[in-house]
Specification:
The structure holds 3 protein chains of 3 kinds.
Chain A: H1 5-11, H2 13-20, H3 42-57, E1 62-75, E2 80-94, E3 97-103, H4 108-126, E4 144-147, H5 159-175, E5 179-197, E6 202-219, E7 225-229, H6 241-244, H7 256-271, E8 275-276, E9 281-287, H8 289-303, H9 306-309, H10 325-328, E10 341-344, E11 366-370, E12 373-374, H11 381-386, H12 388-393, E13 404-405, E14 414-415, E15 419-422, H13 431-436, E16 440-451, E17 457-468, E18 471-476, E19 480-484, H14 485-490, E20 492-495, E21 502-510, E22 515-523, E23 526-534
Parallel strand pairs in A: 4-6, 8-18, 9-16, 15-22
Antiparallel strand pairs in A: 1-2, 1-5, 2-3, 5-6, 6-7, 9-23, 10-11, 10-15, 11-12, 13-14, 16-17, 17-18, 17-19, 19-23, 20-23, 21-22
Helix pairs in contact in A: 1-2, 3-4
Chain B: H1 22-35, E1 41-57, E2 60-78, E3 81-87, H2 92-108, H3 135-138, H4 142-158, E4 161-178, E5 191-207, E6 213-220, H5 228-241, E7 251-257, H6 259-270, H7 276-281, E8 287-291, E9 296-299, E10 312-314, E11 332-336, E12 339-340, H8 347-354, E13 366-368, H9 375-380, E14 384-396, E15 404-416, E16 419-423, E17 427-431, H10 433-436, E18 440-443, E19 447-448, E20 466-468, E21 471-481
Parallel strand pairs in B: 7-14, 13-20
Antiparallel strand pairs in B: 1-2, 1-4, 2-3, 4-5, 5-6, 7-21, 8-9, 10-11, 10-13, 11-12, 14-15, 15-16, 15-17, 17-21, 18-21, 19-20
Helix pairs in contact in B: 1-2, 4-5
Chain C: H1 2-22, H2 48-67, H3 88-98, H4 111-120, H5 124-136, H6 143-160, H7 166-179, H8 183-199, H9 203-218, H10 222-225, H11 228-231, H12 239-251, H13 253-262, H14 264-279, E1 301-303, E2 319-323, H15 326-329, E3 330-332, E4 338-340, H16 343-355, E5 360-366, H17 379-391, E6 399-403, E7 407-409, E8 417-419, H18 423-427, E9 440-443, E10 449-453, H19 460-479
Parallel strand pairs in C: 2-5, 5-6
Antiparallel strand pairs in C: 1-6, 2-9, 3-4, 7-8, 9-10
Classes of the chains: A alpha+beta, B alpha+beta, C alpha+beta.
Chain lengths: 540, 485, 480
């Protein structure tokens, strides 16, 4: 039902007064301007409730609303740029169909419009064939507030301190012969989110995301040159301490300055190695932590998204190689017995960490693959409902694992990846130790991975080295590797220990239209057997 | 509905039109400029977008949405500095706070800006006529989208297949003005108000066991030109024909590339069409050799680099193409009968190196020449080859040869003795479009393809239409088989 | 159905509106863009580089603020500027931040940046102690080479921090000399100290160090003279020019001016003998056009128009010719920003024109087919735009000579424009084995070239002064 001026006027003089204010001033309904209230202000709850009331009045059996206030600050060594936005989105469920409406305006009128529009969208499609949506039950959060704990709020620190720190990295790098910083900027984002549902939940949260790009270039000679991205600055659920801390477990063992120095030394050694062409074949391969993290993420990380496995991304990113999710649960051998993959949204410092997801669900820790066997999928309230029979058989409760998310309230919540961890090996090996333990084989560092649209096979391209007698003796030019996901993880031979775990913040694009969300993947270096090494540039 | 005038009619809601009109944008710009303190120039860039979306999977709509947002970028040049902020609220307090933030940035900006005296006046940029707005797209209601979706799903469901797809109608507006030329934004870096629409429709039909997959899709500014029913029929047909594919040996094959596949491969070319890179440092595929005497690189401009039957061009007035008006949009031919004829350059380059005005935009949207051989005829005249629907996940391997690798997707068939004989498992290819476009056997009629905005966050490049022919190409290199369907 | 919905809607709207009235100061959308307290807590800074970054930031901030009212580019250059103390805010920042880095406990791994920081903080004695401690800590193996490297770094820092510490630099260089080590490196360092001293007007020191340069140069072996390293000295202009420069300093400007006072030919002879002295080459090999007859300037467009009727350089006048390119001076970007990189030179020309009313200044330029962002101009239009820009520099009595630069274009579709030399550029090329291209020429009243420089030469006023007096003297003698 569309709102016309005529209808408004009939509704009363007060309504007319409101309607007479032309856009865009409708956003300012208070009599005098005032600073934006913090997200846990009770007045925002009233605002959110009004959207839900309208949706319910229009016929929704379930509705939820998100309000987000996002700030973004980009720091360069000499300048700082600011961006700020507010969004609100309402989702409504009616007769098994979802509708969604969103916009940038926080005002009672907009709440009403969005509530109505979301139901309208759902209703229109409910005219079609029957569809059943069972939302897994979730405890009501009558009122909750959570702030992601960070040591240094990047929005409360003087931007000049940040600039000085970034400049100091530049100056430090410049002291080291043959090297320079190719890229040096940092990014901080903070988002305040309020969530309300017609089931009575209301919670507010504040999340931080800090990341940086610090790329060091080393030029020994015209031919021997390379660059690397300094470890530990991929997106994190942390504050400015991401840069300044002397050491961050699972991110880096040393200060950033020291990481630069060590990275340059290591790259220098690698650049001085003799270069050999690719000898196509199968090799025992030592993969470094970032390579493993990408592999884990893009194989099982994507394949265990239940919506994807059931064809809900078929027209976009594709499907999953776990083609029979319910049949494979508990029986599919996804990897070697040493392969265990867990998921959560609670790890401090990880970038998908929340107290409640975008459906008001408090995410739990769960295991996707245990001792090589597929044991669970990533779920939201709706997709957990699909698992109901499988869970019942396994004697597990039907509950969402809390994977609902969206970049901001203007986008609809989708099932997004949680934080993933590849459980480390029992022995205290690290990358160098794994190399030492390999008589003949290859070592692969920093590979970028391309998967097929079923996430079942892929191509990796990175820095490849020949290992002989436990040492890296040569760099292999223009090398890549082909793999099949299940074969790869079944060929897992050794995994680095707890101390070699490293956490990486990944950005994924999912949905139509595409949404960008972040999650962390924690992995250790591994050895896999019989990895196929190819020259990716060789034609047939 | 005239080009550039904004939406012809507002949605009946008094509280929100879906995108900002020219009058609203003017009012906002005036208010922003009114908040400025301390003199100097104020620039305001206002973008608004609206999406009407409908997504389905497993033969049922999974979500239908109406979404919209705004972006305002305010830049203040005060004294000798410039600062800018971005935000999305239009109330006075927000705009004023943003202006203050920009002024703070100006005080702290690292560059000292001081325009020298005695400079020539700013030139007046001219904007080409472009066809961007379609009432047909803008007027599509959620009800219509729902009906369309049901019509697209029904045939697949009737045959026991699973259809997943996406319908989107989008509209947007953009303006970028300066306090110094508010009523007449004539400078090359101003953007007078422009609005556009875009529609896209695509679907993937798979059988329940996942042994076959077919896809079809189309995008463009005019929903009226997109025949969703035909697309749905094609996707279903391909799904059925692609079931239970067999493995084939990788190798070099004659391929019949459907227009979508040609367009996918052309992305590698489209991304490398600018002048300065090869001319300054010999980078990219078009550098020829360094000229020591002149201290520059010669390029392949003027050389035949593709088959002479290939001409790739763009005319902003072409109603089938139409790209957001910028002052450097002119009709351009990049490849003229196989000869590399133009590479993109900006206005500074144009004036400095060529003494012409304005610049030349890169291959964002394009029309590629073809022939009149139908795909059926191509099949009938192929002794042994493969028919490719489209490619996916393409990555560039080498910048000089444009060698790339990627996967076939949603339909690959073996042709033997002029007939399609079997569905084939998908391949990974390792091939360069430059090689392929030099190994052409036959060309078909060019048609529009699916090429919607890739990045919904980058609404500045909303339309990237392409009109592309099917091609039969020999010796196309497939290097490994993949299991993915 | 419809009316039901309407009523329903009306009710909910009323509820919403009532709610909004209750929420008197409703949650309206207001962006903040707040910044936190921007005070920097220097005590938290733990690395030397952070302190240097803070110091640099404060310094740039002051420069930015100063730029609001002062246009430094057009002010006369203050030769003693490098010796002046830094603004208090800068020193204070450096001092406070450097407090934790005490001598003799600070980490020697931070030697180079810490030395700079000490100097910015005014802790010269700590700086000296640091250098001593660092020199003493070199490994026993290759001690000499290592010490030389440390000394070089220290000298570099003493010369590049502000205020310039010439005394300290000289002390280190002398002690480094005792170490031997690579002579060409030493030559480079001496030349840098000499230049730094010369730049700040410390002529006594400059001459002293110039003496070292010449002495060291005399002692070079043939192999060293012909080495690639020698060729690369002086930022690629070559060792010969570097040593010649030292010879100039050693000889001293007063002596050269005395020569010029006598005659241009005298100065020419002096310079040629200096060249022969330090390079061992024939005097004719001097890579300078001094003593040559200045070719006539030609142009397609003259401003003012009357200037076309007088030959330039003008006989009987001291002439200053500036050959330049608006392309090299004026820059712009797609955001609409325009920048002039040449105001210093143009402002100094203006000051000269005011000081010497009879000085004949000709600015010689050529067209390029473009002028900043303007639509492609004809040569006539472009010449006019050049004139309009140059006239804002108010150089009194200056003539502007613009040639329509001959050019060709690479074949279509490339079509890039390739400029050829204008007749003036060809005539005034005076190219030698070095890669110098002269930008300005000082010509005496007889049309002979007295000096050729890069674009900007601060001492040209002194030369002009001598030429003016020489003319007055001549006229006075003729009157008798």
């Amino acid at each position: 039902m569309n709102l016309t001026r005529r209808n408004l006027l009939k509704a009363g003089a007060l309504a007319a007064a409101a309607a007479a204010i032309p856009r865009p001033l409708l956003a300012q309904l208070g009599r005098t301007p005032e600073p934006l209230p913090p997200i846990d202000d009770p007045r925002l709850k009233a605002l959110a409730s009004s959207a839900l009331e309208t949706a319910r009045a229009a016929g929704a059996v379930y509705a939820d609303v998100r309000l987000t206030h996002s700030r973004l600050r980009t720091f360069w060594p000499v300048y700082t740029a600011d961006d700020e936005s507010m969004e609100v989105g309402v989702r409504a469920l009616m007769d098994g169909y979802w509708g969604f409406a969103s916009g940038p305006v926080w005002s009672p009128d907009e709440m009403a419009r969005l509530g109505r529009e979301a139901v309208h969208q759902a209703k229109v499609n409910a005219l079609g064939k029957r569809r059943v949506v069972e939302l897994a039950a979730v405890p009501v959060v009558a009122s909750g507030n959570w702030v992601m704990p960070v040591a240094i709020d990047p929005f409360e620190i003087s931007p000049f301190e940040v600039q000085d720190f970034l400049t100091s990295l530049d100056l430090y790098c410049g002291r080291i012969p043959d090297s320079g910083l190719q890229q040096n900027f940092a990014f901080a984002a903070v988002q305040e989110k309020a969530f309300a549902s017609t089931e009575g939940s209301y919670c507010t949260q504040r999340f931080y995301r800090t990341e940086g790009s610090l790329i060091v270039r080393l030029q020994l000679t015209k031919e021997r040159a390379g660059n690397f991205a300094v470890e530990g600055l991929s997106p994190a659920g942390m504050g400015w301490e991401l840069y300044t801390a002397e050491r961050i477990p699972r991110l880096r063992e040393h200060s950033l300055r020291e990481e630069i120095r060590r990275g340059i030394e290591e790259l220098r050694e690698e650049l001085l190695l003799p270069v050999k062409p690719v000898d196509v074949g199968r090799y025992d391969a030592v993969l470094d932590a970032p390579t493993v993290a990408s592999l884990v993420d893009k194989t099982l990380g994507r394949a265990t998204e239940l919506d994807r496995a059931l064809g809900f991304e078929a027209n976009a990113g594709g499907t999953s190689y776990l083609t029979d999710p319910f049949g494979m649960l508990g029986s599919y051998q996804a990897g070697a017995p040493a392969f265990t993959l867990t998921a959560e949204r609670s790890e401090p410092g990880a970038v998908a960490t929340v107290k409640w997801d975008d459906e008001g669900v408090a995410p739990d820790s769960f295991t996707l693959v245990k001792d090589g066997v597929l044991t669970d999928f990533q779920t939201t309230r709706e997709s957990a409902g699909w698992m109901k029979n499988s869970y019942a058989k396994a004697g597990r409760p039907v509950r969402s694992h809390g994977c609902a998310g969206a970049p901001s309230a203007v986008e609809a919540p989708l099932q997004q990846a949680p934080n993933l961890t590849l459980v480390p090996g029992r022995e205290a090996h690290d990358f160098d130790a794994l190399v030492s333990g390999t008589a003949r084989g290859i070592a692969i560092k920093g590979a970028g991975i391309d998967m097929d649209f079923q996430h079942s096979s892929g191509l990796g391209i990175g820095r490849v080295f020949e290992i002989k007698n436990g040492k890296r003796v040569a760099a292999i030019d223009s090398a890549g590797f082909l793999f099949r996901a299940t074969e790869l993880w079944k060929a897992l031979h050794a995994t680095g220990g707890e101390a070699s775990l490293r956490r990486y913040g990944m950005m994924t694009e999912k949905g139509e239209p595409a949404e960008r969300c972040y999650h962390s993947v924690t992995a250790a270096p591994v050895v896999v057997k019989d990895l196929t090494l190819i020259d990716p540039q060789r034609k047939a | 509905m005239r080009r550039g005038d904004g939406p012809a009619r507002l949605v009946e809601s008094a509280s929100s039109a879906r995108i900002l009109s020219k009058e609203e944008c003017d009012a906002i710009a005036r208010r922003v400029i009114g908040f400025a303190r301390g003199g100097g120039e104020t620039r305001v860039r206002i973008l608004s977008w609206w999406n009407g979306e409908l997504r389905w999977a497993r033969n049922r709509v999974s979500l239908a949405s109406d979404r919209r947002d705004i972006r305002v970028e305010i830049s203040r040049t005060v004294g000798v500095g410039r600062g800018s902020v971005g935000e999305n609220q239009l109330d006075d307090a927000s705009l004023e706070a943003a202006v203050r933030g920009a002024e703070r940035g100006a005080v702290l900006s690292p560059n000292i800006l001081r325009p020298p005296p005695g400079m020539p006046p700013l030139p007046h940029a001219t904007y080409p006529r472009t066809a961007l707005w379609s009432d047909a797209t803008y007027a599509v209601t959620p009800e219509t989208r729902g009906e369309v979706a049901r019509a697209l799903v029904a045939p697949a469901e009737a045959q026991g297949m699973l259809s997943a797809g996406y319908l989107e109608m989008r509209a947007g507006s953009l303006v970028s003005v300066s306090s110094e030329r508010l009523t007449d934004p004539y400078a090359p870096w101003d953007v007078p108000y422009a609005s556009w629409t875009q529609a896209q429709c695509s679907m993937t039909v798979r059988d329940a066991q996942g042994t076959g997959s077919g896809w079809a899709g189309l995008s463009g500014s005019d929903w009226g030109k997109i025949d969703g029913v035909a697309l749905a029929a094609r996707a279903l047909e391909k799904c059925k024909a692609s079931q239970h594919p067999v493995s084939l040996e990788p190798g070099r094959y004659t391929v019949i590339l459907e227009p979508q596949a040609v367009a996918d491969l052309m992305e590698l070319v489209a991304a490398s069409m600018s002048r300065p890179a090869p001319e300054n440092s010999g980078a990219g595929p078009w550098a020829l050799a360094p000229d020591e005497a002149l201290h520059l690189w010669r390029t392949k401009l003027g050389l035949k680099v593709l088959d002479e039957r290939i001409t790739i061009s763009h005319d902003p007035a072409d109603p089938a193409l139409g790209i957001l008006a910028e002052p450097w949009m002119q009709p351009v031919t990049w490849f003229d009968k196989g000869v590399l004829t133009n590479l993109a350059f900006d206005r500074e380059y144009a004036l400095d190196q060529l003494n012409v005005n304005p610049g030349l935009r890169g291959m964002v949207g394009y029309r590629m020449s073809g022939g009149d051989t139908s795909i059926d005829e191509m099949i009938a005249t192929t002794a042994r080859g493969l028919l490719v629907t489209r490619f996916s996940d393409i990555r560039r391997l080498d910048e000089k040869s444009l060698l790339g690798t990627g996967l076939t997707r949603d339909g690959l068939w073996l042709i033997e003795h002029g007939k399609i004989t079997k569905a084939v498992k998908n391949f990974r290819f390792t091939e360069s479009p430059l090689f392929a476009l030099n190994a052409i056997e036959q060309l078909g009629v060019p048609v529009p393809v699916f090429r919607p905005v890739k990045d919904p966050y980058d609404a500045q490049n909303p339309l990237t239409p392409a009109i592309v022919p099917p091609l039969k190409v020999r010796d196309f290199s497939f290097t490994s088989t993949i299991d993915a369907i | 159905m419809r009316s039901n919905v309407r009523t329903h809607y009306g009710e909910s709207l009323l509820i919403a509106l009532l709610a909004s009235i209750v929420l008197t100061q409703s949650a309206a959308a207001q962006m903040r863009f707040t910044w936190p307290d921007t005070t920097v807590q220097l005590s938290k800074y733990s690395t030397v580089e952070q302190c240097l970054a803070a110091t640099s930031r404060v310094s740039k901030g002051l420069a930015r603020r100063e730029a609001l009212t002062l246009w430094r580019d057009t002010m006369p250059r203050n030769p003693r500027e490098a010796l002046e103390p830094l603004p208090a805010a800068v020193t204070e920042t450096a001092r406070r931040c450097a407090a934790p880095f005490t001598e003799p406990t600070a980490d020697l791994a931070d030697f180079a940046p810490l030395l700079a920081l000490y100097l910015y903080a005014g802790r010269d004695s700590d700086a000296a102690a640091l250098v001593t401690r660092r020199l003493a800590a070199v490994p026993a193996k290759d001690a000499r080479t290592a010490r030389a490297a440390v000394s070089d770094t220290a000298v570099d820092i003493y010369l590049t921090t502000r205020p310039t510490r010439l005394d300290a630099a000289e002390r280190i260089l002398l002690s480094r000399a005792r170490d031997g080590a690579d002579r060409i490196d030493r030559l480079d360092l001496y030349a840098r100290l000499m230049t730094a001293a010369n730049d700040v007007g410390d002529t006594v020191r400059a001459r002293r160090v110039a003496g070292w340069v010449v002495a060291l140069s005399d002692s070079l072996t043939k192999a060293e003279r012909e080495s690639e390293k020698f060729e690369k000295l002086g930022h690629g202009s070559g060792g010969k020019l570097l040593v010649f420069g030292a010879m100039n300093v050693l000889t001293g400007l007063p002596t050269m001016l005395d020569s010029l006072r006598h005659s241009t030919a005298s100065l020419e002879a002096l310079e040629r003998s200096m060249w022969a002295r330090v390079t061992g080459e024939r005097p004719e090999a001097l890579p300078s056009p001094v003593g040559e007859r200045a070719p006539a300037i030609t142009a397609d467009y003259w401003y003012p128009a009357e200037a076309a009727s007088t030959p330039r350089p003008r006989p009987g006048h001291v002439s200053l010719l500036i050959l330049f390119d608006h392309d090299a001076c004026l820059k712009w970007n797609s955001a609409g920003d325009t920048k002039d990189t040449c105001p210093m030179a143009l402002a100094s020309l203006r000051r000269l024109s005011e000081r010497f009313p009879t000085l004949d200044i000709t600015i010689v330029s050529g067209t390029h087919g473009s002028f900043l962002y303007a639509p492609p101009p004809t040569p006539t239009d472009e010449a006019d735009m050049i004139r309009k820009w140059l006239e804002t520099s108010r150089i009194r009595g200056a003539a502007i000579a613009v040639s329509s630069t001959p050019f060709w274009n690479l074949p279509r579709p490339d079509a890039r424009r390739i400029d050829r030399d204008t007749p003036n550029a060809t005539n005034y090329a005076f190219r030698t084995s070095t890669k110098w291209t002269y930008g300005s020429f000082l010509i005496d009243q007889d049309g002979i070239i007295v000096a050729a420089h890069g674009f900007f030469e601060p001492d040209v006023g002194k030369l002009i002064d001598v030429l003016m007096h020489r003319q007055q003297q001549k006229e006075a003698n003729e009157a008798k």
